[in-house]
């Protein structure tokens, strides 16, 4: 579990594991993580988790992004979190991404 008391893993080991997981779903060899590949990676990564472990991991991931702990992730919080890896990403970019993949761009997502 993400926030659990399991073994501590080094950042290098975590990156290597993430790359190996992406390689498993990189059916076109592009090295890019698309939405379809992301869904497949999440399915593989959680296939052996119990429902309780999965719920705990999702909550921990949600809390990484929900900085003000109001049980809602705003476009601003999501942009700030994603911006750690993609410099120059704007709120408009995130809203467009949400609309493209979910058919709507809400100003916030709830933890429910």
Short précis:
The protein has 112 residues and is mostly helical. It has five helices and two strands.
Structural class: mainly alpha
Give the ordered list of helices and strands.
HHHEHHE
* Contiguous helical run count: 5
Give the uncertain stretches in residue-range form: 1-5
**Distance N to C terminus:** 19 Å
Estimate percent helicity: 55-70%
Number of strands: 2
Query: Largest sheet at a glance?
Result: 2 strands, antiparallel
- Based on CA atoms alone, the radius of gyration comes out at 15 Å
What is the general shape? globular
Describe the strand arrangement of the main beta sheet, using strand numbers: 1-2
Describe this structure in words.
The protein has 112 residues and is mainly alpha-helical. The chain has five helices and two strands. It has helices spanning 11-25, 35-46, 51-65, 75-82, 91-102; strands at residues 72-74, 108-110. The chain is globular, with a radius of gyration of 15 Å. Mean pLDDT is 79; it is low at 1-5.
Write the layout of secondary structure elements.
Blueprint: H1 11-25, H2 35-46, H3 51-65, E1 72-74, H4 75-82, H5 91-102, E2 108-110
Antiparallel strand pairs: 1-2
Which labels suit this protein?
mainly alpha; globular; disordered N terminus; two-stranded antiparallel ribbon; 5% strand; 112 residues; 5 helices
